[in-house]
Each structure stands twice: as structure tokens, then as C-alpha cells.
Amino acid sequence: KFYQYVGNNFEKPDQLETGTMISVLVAFVIEKDGSMTDIKVIRNPGYGLGNEAIRVLKSLKTKWSPGMKNGKNVRTEYVLPIKVKID
What we know:
- It is built from two helices and five strands.
- By secondary structure, the protein is α+β, with helices and mostly antiparallel strands.
- Strand 1 and strand 2 form a beta hairpin.
């Protein structure tokens, strides 16, 4: 469902050719309560895609399952590639 949400809400730039595949690499932290914070772009291919990835992730209202260590919720960093195909 996560990738479906990102795909449906990601605004693709018009200046790229149809069929182009681009990857944006983002990192974020899942807090103990399951909320997403500290979203940052690690690899930005340009065309405003880094900012768009941040916008889409910030718009996500679903809580994540936090990391667990010794039976307790802990902050966990994730690195996630978002692949975009221009149709």
C-alpha cells in the first residue's frame, strides 16, 4: 500500500522523456510512536524530484511499526529508494 500511495501521489516532471526511470534515495526516522520524522534526500536526480519525494512522504498519515530492541520501541532510521517511471 505504501508504494501504491507514493506512486499515486508523486507528481512527475514534464521535461523528462516517456519511459525514463529515475531513482530518488531518501532517509527518514520512524519514531517510537510510529510517526515519520527527519526526512532527507540522499540522492537527488534533479528535476524537483527530491522535493517531491519529501512532499509525498510528509503527506503520509499512516503510522509505521517502530523498531524494537529488548522488547521496547526504539527510533529506527530507514533508507528507501523511490523509483519513478515517466509514463
